[in-house]
Amino acid sequence: MSAALRSRLVARTAEFIDIPSVSFAEGPMVDHLEAELRRLAHLSVDRVGDNLVARTMLGRPQRLVLAGHTDTVPVNGNDRARIEGDVVWGLGAADMKAGLVVMAELAAALREPAVDATYVFYAREEVAAEHSGLEELFVQAPELLAGDAAILGEPTSGRIEAGCQGTLRARITLRGARAHTARPWMGRNAIHRLGALLEALARFEPRQPEVGGLRWREALQAVQVSGGVAGNVVPDEASVTVNHRFAPDRDVDEALAEVRRVVAPYLEDGDRVELTESSPAGRPALDHPLLAALHRRSGAEVEAKLGWTDVARFSARGVPAVNFGPGDSTLAHTAEERVDAASIVAVHDVLASLLAG
Amino acid sequence: MSAALRSRLVARTAEFIDIPSVSFAEGPMVDHLEAELRRLAHLSVDRVGDNLVARTMLGRPQRLVLAGHTDTVPVNGNDRARIEGDVVWGLGAADMKAGLVVMAELAAALREPAVDATYVFYAREEVAAEHSGLEELFVQAPELLAGDAAILGEPTSGRIEAGCQGTLRARITLRGARAHTARPWMGRNAIHRLGALLEALARFEPRQPEVGGLRWREALQAVQVSGGVAGNVVPDEASVTVNHRFAPDRDVDEALAEVRRVVAPYLEDGDRVELTESSPAGRPALDHPLLAALHRRSGAEVEAKLGWTDVARFSARGVPAVNFGPGDSTLAHTAEERVDAASIVAVHDVLASLLAG
């Protein structure tokens, strides 16, 4: 590995940090990438809104997708880059300007990779799922995202996150009967009924199944509770919203059935369970040859991703996907966000080797 | 009892119903009463805002206060009076235009009662306690409300409600620690902690003490619950507001201590119990000679009033007070509100006899 490359990756990470790209304001960052990639004759470049896709078109039997989001969370006093020795500090350093730099470098350097390469730069990952630029691409131009496997450059400290857990939210509404609080026996208190249900949630021990050679850890948590009519009224309705995180051996229907099973003993006629939001899990993907090669060449530890990530969007379309990128995710979204040169170079070199074949 | 009086009471109840006096708009009703009472030379009349007080000033050793509110709940398709046989229908018929008619009739007819009489017509009873016209009088002109005992003309179907239960509201806030819902073991779910507390409220059996010869029935009910940060966050705070109705053998401090005792097993450092609102109970008052005489002369059933009423405002100032009036309170605030002639006449005659001595 050359010292020149190392310096260049560090300098370009600082340069990318200095182009602000908070969610919904990624335009200048995308413009910058687009100008750079359009100068490269070996790439076919398409822009859809603030999403950018650059592809080699070599007719190789396999195609690998490298994808990363261009947006950052809001500024936090660290919107200007600072280089100290081998470390680059600043908003988005790890999440995920360094990953974008690696993609841009590979796109420029590898004119004839052994597999066709698709570089996807997408908008609005750090905000509500409904705004996702990646989803926009899957809906507007799915052909641009076609591929045999995908690697997303989220910060993983150089580890491989194989698949991810799914997530759903469901609102459980319990009914009662109104009465004056001075005569509560004339009614039935719906908030009191929540007690046994919340106790059951507190007691519940979620599964920790092994799937794809990895240990997963499900969760079932109340995230919202509400109820009440007035200060002198026995309330006739109360509800709790739960968030269930589920392992990749279950789809949304099976996960919802688990929630229903847990709460069923506390439901009566008139009560309701409503699914309000769901995203399927991403299946562990290391059995695909391209991702198995990534694992072998990187020597990286493999982890089960307990939170939901965009790998599930590829997984849902039948494209095996993992997260693999420079930087420490626990520093992301903090004022201490940073990335070190060794981490950027290591990811760069593994991906370069993988694409070179 | 003369048929003329009976007709007159019925006609005047209809007349009073036809003068609209929804809360905060009692002016015309008060003007009407004021004009009528100021014509009576044996009464000293004072008006404070939309509250009106008329007193005999005979220097009698005892003074009895008769009090009633002039306001009604909002119109409900029944704002015009309708007389059908012996029944007067209309908004406020029972609650409490018939009671006001009885007061106005007694004020006019009894020039030299055996005890001095104070007739209090007050505004804004049907709305939040903070707007109470009776409280306004107690603050602005307490001397006008001085007396040895008080009878409030709320509809009791001719029964005597001796005293009333107190009421308080307290907010109990439980703390937790935030975490991502994919890693809930890094935090502590405050909504889950509510489970055991709500279970305890559901299980709790309130006291039914005997006080003043009456059986009371306390209550402790959750009336509001809230908590939640975001759909992917283990919440660090959740709260429940309880309404406690307590018998007249306890003051607010003792009642709050009871609430604290019930919830204490579920509290930890950092949790809070806050008193947000309270009104003391009204003590049973039938041991006072004037009210004992009311009981004896009326032959009325005596009841413990489980809800809070304005008798507690007199009780808190050391004036024994009861509710005693024509009409059925279960019809109040409904489109079927009505009062029958027999009920008005019966209350009129008992009070006339009591004042005549």
Would you tell me the structural class of the helices and strands of chain A?
A: alpha+beta
Biggest interface: A-B, 46 and 46 residues
- Computed over alpha carbons, the radius of gyration of chain A is 24 Å
| Residue share in β-strands of chain A | 25-35%
Q: What's the β-strand tally of chain A?
A: 19
Give the oligomer, counting copies of the same chain as homo and different chains as hetero.
homodimer
Biggest sheet details of chain A: 8 strands, mixed
Number of separate helices of chain A: 9
Mean pLDDT of chain A: 96
Order of helices and strands of chain A: HHEEEEEHEHEEEEHEEEEEHEHEHEEH
Instruction: Flag low-confidence runs of chain A.
Output: none
The shape of chain A is: elongated
Strand order across the biggest sheet of chain A? 1-2-6-3-7-18-8-17
Helix content of chain A: 25-40%
Q: What's the gist of this structure?
A:
Helix content of chain A is 31%, strand content 27%. Chain A has 9 helices and 19 strands.
Task: Sum up the structure in keywords.
alpha+beta, four-stranded antiparallel β-sheet, 19 strands, homodimer, eight-stranded mixed β-sheet, 31% helix, 27% strand, 357 residues, elongated, 9 helices
How are the secondary structure elements laid out?
The structure is a homodimer of 357-residue chains.
Chain A lengths: L2 H15 L9 H12 L5 E5 L2 E5 L7 E7 L12 E3 L2 E3 L3 H17 L6 E7 L10 H8 L8 E4 L7 E5 L1 E10 L3 E2 L9 H14 L6 E2 L2 E2 L3 E10 L4 E2 L2 E10 L5 H12 L8 E8 L9 H10 L3 E4 L5 H6 L4 E3 L14 E3 H16 L1
Parallel strand pairs in A: 3-6, 3-7, 7-18, 8-17
Antiparallel strand pairs in A: 1-2, 2-6, 4-5, 5-19, 8-18, 9-15, 9-16, 10-14, 11-12, 13-15
